[in-house]
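sry for the spam today, last one i promise. struct tokens for design, 141 residues
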């Protein structure tokens, strides 16, 4: 059973989350630097070692649903991943995930670094996707 990966795309760093093999729980993974050479080297290893079968890419939209410059870059990034790895790379609306991440209080943590927020945002994005998969499966039972 492969895993699903979520990426919170950014120009300086990219937040990462991975599902468990059963695709029930999303786990934060350390952020990756957005510098292409380093990013793709580390991503190659993750996809191979964790047997990733699908990638979710956060698609930032404005409150009105429009795409800005980063949204266009995210779409191009997802297409590049599809072509490079030959696995699905799906765009997922990521509105509010960073805000949710910054407001999620965790015992013992009073302040999260910006990079930690990026990975938590990816985890929230992925967990929402996994929960939706589980709910759809229950509806078809």
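last one done:
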């Amino acid at each position: 059973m492969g895993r699903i990966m979520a990426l919170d795309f950014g120009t300086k760093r990219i937040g990462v989350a991975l599902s468990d093999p059963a695709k029930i729980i999303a786990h934060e993974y350390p952020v990756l630097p957005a510098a292409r050479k380093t990013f793709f080297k580390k991503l190659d290893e993750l996809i191979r070692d964790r047997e990733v079968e699908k990638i979710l890419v956060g698609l930032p939209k404005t409150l009105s649903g429009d795409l800005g410059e980063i949204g266009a870059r995210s779409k191009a990034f997802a297409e590049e991943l599809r072509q490079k790895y030959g696995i699905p790379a799906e765009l997922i609306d990521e509105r509010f995930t960073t805000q949710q991440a910054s407001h999620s209080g965790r015992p013992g943590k009073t302040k999260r670094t910006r990079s930690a927020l990026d990975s938590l945002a990816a985890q929230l994005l992925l967990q929402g996707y996994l929960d939706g998969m589980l709910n759809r499966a229950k509806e078809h039972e």
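Helices lie at 36-49, 69-85, 97-103, 114-139. ok im logging off now
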